[in-house]
């Protein structure tokens, strides 16, 4: 699943390509929004809120979430002036926004400007609502690690509200803080020296864990390739199951971790009734460098 840095770059690309243009035509291929038409409407721009992408057109917000496989592409014209070919099949397109060439304050075409298209493929969520409802609809989310209004104290308070919860699942809960996925969770906790199975309230310096996550996402938001260590060996822990730890040489362990623990325990007592607490995600850890706090 794309993490906060990826969504931030997607929003930045959309904003750069579309802000200030007028929509020529739009197509939304989700049942609840299929009849929405923004033709002729002004495009204000795009921004990210954690893993959520908001595109503002006229008085409305097009809200999308990439989930596992979603992505937005920007297409212009080729050397012959024809629209560029899409890199993914049309059947995977869920949102299409065709924008006119840019115009100046007098309504004249800006020299060199050409039409562009923004296409959202395999979007996990797509909805449209008045922009005035953004805070109401997304207010349940925690502070955004890459947001201009990032609030580390609020993130800390949110996490400590459930001190008995495991730190691994707690960091993925976007209601606590936005932007962390399984990769940044593994790297953050490795660098903090904290086992992901530790209880939140037992972690001795939780503020440092939050600070490391913020530093990692900020450092990677402009990079096309995610790096927490070196360009040659980009990640400390994630994806390195069975390989020696760069620091101590112990073999990295891969778990399936939920709020209830690892192994069979992660399912709870009723494996047929999956709840938020029993949803498991892959987790990586060093058994030596990362301390289990309980």
From TrEMBL:
PANTHER family: ENDONUCLEASE 8. This is DNA-(apurinic or apyrimidinic site) lyase. Residues 2-147 form the Formamidopyrimidine-DNA glycosylase catalytic domain. GO terms for molecular function: class I DNA-(apurinic or apyrimidinic site) endonuclease activity; damaged DNA binding; oxidized pyrimidine nucleobase lesion DNA N-glycosylase activity; zinc ion binding. Residues 236-291 form the FPG-type domain. It comes from Rothia terrae. Its EC number is 4.2.99.18. InterPro entries: FPG_cat, FPG_N, H2TH_FPG, Nei2_N, Ribosomal_uS13-like_H2TH, Znf_DNA_glyclase/AP_lyase. Transmembrane segments: none annotated.
């Amino acid at each position: 699943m794309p993490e906060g840095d990826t969504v931030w770059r997607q929003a930045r690309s959309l904003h750069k390509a579309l802000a200030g243009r007028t929509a020529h035509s739009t197509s939304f291929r989700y049942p609840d929004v299929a009849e929405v038409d923004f033709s002729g409407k002004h495009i204000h721009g795009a921004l990210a809120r954690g893993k959520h992408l908001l595109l503002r057109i006229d008085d409305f917000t097009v809200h999308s979430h990439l989930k596992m496989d979603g992505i937005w592409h920007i297409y212009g014209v080729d050397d012959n002036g024809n629209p560029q070919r899409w890199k993914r099949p049309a059947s995977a397109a869920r949102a299409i926004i065709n924008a006119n060439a840019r115009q100046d304050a007098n309504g004249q075409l800006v020299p060199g400007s050409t039409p562009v298209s923004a296409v959202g493929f395999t979007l996990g969520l797509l909805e449209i609502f008045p922009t005035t409802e953004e805070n109401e609809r997304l207010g349940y989310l925690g502070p955004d690690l890459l947001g201009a209004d990032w609030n580390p104290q609020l993130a800390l308070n949110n996490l400590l509200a459930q001190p008995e919860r495991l730190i691994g699942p707690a960091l993925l809960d976007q209601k606590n803080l936005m932007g962390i996925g399984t990769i940044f969770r593994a790297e953050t906790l490795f660098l903090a020296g904290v086992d992901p199975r530790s209880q939140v309230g037992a972690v001795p310096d939780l503020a440092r864990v939050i600070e490391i996550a913020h530093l990692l996402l900020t450092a990677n938001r402009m990079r096309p390739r995610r790096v927490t260590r070196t360009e040659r060996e980009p990640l400390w822990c994630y994806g390195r199951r069975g390989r020696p730890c760069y620091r101590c040489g112990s073999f990295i362990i891969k778990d399936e971790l939920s709020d209830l623990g690892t192994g069979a325990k992660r399912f709870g007592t009723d494996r047929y009734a999956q709840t938020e607490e029993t949803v498991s995600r892959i987790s990586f850890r060093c058994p030596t460098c990362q301390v289990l706090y309980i």
